[in-house]
Amino acid sequence: MFEYIPTVLRSQEIIDKSFKKASNIVEPYFPKKEDKIRKEITDRISTIESISTGHFDKLIRKFPTIETLHPFYFDLIDLMFDVDKYKLSLGNIQWTSNKIKELSTVYIKKLKSAKTVDSLNGIMKSYYGRYSSLIKNINKDLLFLGECRNYFKRLPGIIMDIPTFIIAGIPNSGKSSLITIITGTNPEVADYPFTTKDVLLGYKIINNRRAQFIDTPGILDRDMSRRNPIEKRAIIALSKIDGIILFLFDYSGTSKYTVEEQEGLYKEISETFNNKVIRVQTKIDISEKHESVCISSKNSDVNQLMDIIYKEVDEFYGIRNKETGN
Ligand SMILES: Nc1nc2c(ncn2[C@@H]2O[C@H](COP(=O)(O)OP(=O)(O)OP(=O)(O)O)[C@@H](O)[C@H]2O)c(=O)[nH]1
Ligand SMILES: [Mg+2]
Description:
Number of strands: 5
CATH class of the largest domain: Alpha Beta
Largest sheet: 5 strands, mixed
Shape: elongated
Strand order of the largest sheet: 2-3-1-4-5
Bound molecules: guanosine-5'-triphosphate, magnesium ion
Number of domains: 2
């Protein structure tokens, strides 16, 4: 959904592009020199206007209206940059686009009443100057929107109406290893905390229907105000996406967080958000059994968990089919 946002040109690029196109315009057939120059300059102004406002209008159409986005995307965007600044930048682009249209109309009118080649050239020079300064004034906005675009493109394209399982837990508990085993996606797995920094997706066909799996960054058992943006991305996924949370417990001692810390985080997650939470013990190949659902991604032993996932997926589609009558 964020794939079709065009590249945002910088001010100088827009000026160069429009002037270059304008400079190619030559009118050969006019008996009077003034008429030839007048026609050329008129066409140049129209070309400059259409190249720049065409670009701006496309940006305004293709950049998302933040308020209408799903809350998951709204919160992720709000976490990364100032939403008011974003709106203001798009507003400035719109204002500039309108100004350029007005300016071009005024200058094309001026050309009609100019009598000499000198005065025609003077009008063109003045237009080029005013046009350039309008475009230069929004360079900061264009650079900022360029950064926003890069961020939008990195956002995961989550499907909101299929059964979804959100894998959560402390850092290093085996979340990415689990999504790899279930879906075959290939996130980075490593023996240090915060390996996963973004929300990642994987899919699996279950009884001919698609189920979605979300790998989230690890979260520490600490106050929300002390959490870093990596942890906050996980919190946004857990709170804003409808799904079942698979909360991973690591009793192996290989991640440096205690069982008490894991219980603290579990308590917060199960009490704060609306989603159902299932406890899953990981790394059963190197730890004693403490939970009723146990897995080992290392040994590809996830059957117990898959049974639960199959049931949940069936239930999801069963309820939906009843609702839609299919
Ligand atoms: N023995 C054993 N090791 C595992 C198992 N699952 C994961 N590991 C190891 O635990 C470490 C962390 O695994 P990850 O899958 O990266 O853990 P994570 O929860 O995604 O970590 P962050 O993204 O940093 O939060 C890696 O060294 C894995 O190889 C398992 O079932 N058994
Ligand atoms: Mg990970």
